[in-house]
Amino acid sequence: MSGSDFTRAEIEQQPAVWRATRMVVQAARTDVDRLLAAALDDRTRIVLTGAGTSAYVGEILAPELTRLLKRPVEAIPTTDLVTDPHAVATGDQPVLLVSFARSGNSPESLAAAGLIDQLAPVAHHLVITCNAEGRLARAYESAGNAAVVTLPAATNDRGFAMTSSFTSMLLAAYLCLAGEADVDALAAAAETVLARSEDVRRAVTALRPERIVYLGSGSLKGLAREAALKTLELTAGTTVALGESSLGFRHGPKAALTPGTLAVVFVSGDSYRRAYDLDLARELAGDLGAERVVLVDAGEGTWHVPRSPGLPDALWAVLAVIPAQLTALACSLAAGLTPDNPFPGGEVNRVVQGVVIHPYGEGRN
């Protein structure tokens, strides 16, 4: 097996595992609905959490869930929650903590949930994970204040970077918290995107980007951050990548542009946000040249990603991330790296290492 076989296969399996994920959520529906009925009163604070890619699942979903549920939904990474838990557990508010975890073995995942149990007056947990044997799933599988949704085993990506685990957790959370989605249509659209994977590889190889900037608005800002992380991970940082919002980019981060930069704009399906995305794309074409600005769009974009009418950006993200995954894979291979293990020396690990969880007490200074 070559050093890219897991990563490539896990990108390509996404349509199949999404269909399987839908079945898992359907089977867990009674348990999830029981939890939500108990958790969602008018005072409950809803927090979506995870680390790294898992945190970006929450960033993508939070704006759309806020609209659909007509109440604030926040994305706060476990890495922030663990270091400052009272920013989440405040006053007398109950908390519904929605945890995303590929392995469920990252130290912060279990610590964040435990701190909410310790500090919130009432805590509820929805755990969405790809690993039934992980510490997080085991800790809450029988808890009365929790529901655990364990996704199909194939979603527990064996490659270094999360690909199918990311999109499957995003889809599962939408189905749990927002309601129905046409998973078959999403899977069919993904298959059309994957059928053009060689076009993406050739385009990226020809451009030979020294840096990649990913940009998007609303839910697509979180997608831009995930896309940038994929490039950093799979190229071991040899291709510098940045994710930012379309409007925020001009306020300093634009300094990252070089003549060898590739700019990728995820174009929103919402006409208001779309106008800002396209304004920036035109500006970047003037700065870099049109050939170095890629639009990921359902219309006339450089990388066409289908979008059915009314599909929210948060769900379109499971499709729009695929070209970014393929880009990261192409950059990794072009650099002579092994995408399944871009850090053979162990400098960065599939499950984070070296984290010490310190006890949290009210008597601290």
UniProtKB/TrEMBL annotation:
Gene Ontology molecular-function annotations: carbohydrate derivative binding; isomerase activity
Any one Gene Ontology BP term: phosphoenolpyruvate-dependent sugar phosphotransferase system
GO terms under cellular component: plasma membrane
Keyword Nucleotide-binding part of the UniProt annotation: no
Residue ranges occupied by any SIS domain in the UniProt entry: 36-186, 196-342
Keywords: Isomerase, Repeat
SUPFAM superfamilies xref list: SIS domain
PANTHER family according to UniProt: D-GALACTOSAMINE-6-PHOSPHATE DEAMINASE AGAS-RELATED (PTHR32502:SF3), N-ACETYLGALACTOSAMINE PERMEASE II COMPONENT-RELATED (PTHR32502)
Protein name according to UniProt: Tagatose-6-phosphate ketose isomerase
Gene: agaS
